[in-house]
Specification:
The chain has two helices and eight strands. By secondary structure, it is an alpha+beta fold. The chain has a single domain, classed as RutC-like (60s Ribosomal Protein L30, Chain: A), CATH 3.30.1330.40.
Length: 126
Amino acid sequence: MKKTISTPHAPAAIGPYCQGYLVDDTLFVSGQIPYVAETMTLISEDIRQQAQQSLENVAAVVTAAGFEIADIVKCQVFLRDMNDFAAVNEVYASFFGTHTPARIAVEVSRLPKDVGVEIDAICMKG
């Protein structure tokens, strides 16, 4: 089974991709930038608020697909500046609590819309 996932509770795709793609029991969530879905604008210049919004956008896609945060098995965190790692990590840890998906965090030279962080996820049921 393959199904495109779309929700108005996460920012609309700004290119030729979908918010998420469900394949059998695995959900692939596209990278989520810190845009507010209703206004399609950046939440704030503050990296903590950007990380929180990106995670909330991931959660919106996860929920729309019928999954839970506990079903997330891996995230990728893309940072414009690795000096923001500690702040983003603090927000990330608070968001996930005792659930600790596998993760990478890398610095990149530029992100869409020049945001400070972008986060994607892979979820599995069972």
